[in-house]
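Worked problem 6 (solution included).
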Amino acid sequence: MAVGRVRPPYSDDVQHYEKLIARHTPLELVEVRDERTVARRIPERAFVSLLDREGAALDSDGFASFLEERRRSGRDLCFVVGGPYGIMLERVDQRLSLGPLTLAHQLARTVLLEQVFRGHKILAGETYHH
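Solution. The predicted structure is:
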């Protein structure tokens, strides 16, 4: 789930990774108009992972393991990417960092999707550079 619409040049990359990820797992990309809408759109039983510069940083293998743990839990996994002004949520199961740099929110979406794809390739034992 992300605040705001993805726009070029990122929209092509988002569509590209959406197709690649669909080969490995169901994926639904939800865009909401503003951060006030996010909390009520999160599925009730979902594990909520909020992208946060101060969150836990995982390497690619650690992220793949995280994806596998979530799959085994039987709960939906909902990543939340805030808008240009960030986001505050009361219900968060994990805060995940893509690194110490602050990324443009549209770029963060693209990086997250690439990492989800990479994680699934690792789990499938398929070649993907590390």
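Discussion: Residues 105-123 form the longest helix (19 residues).
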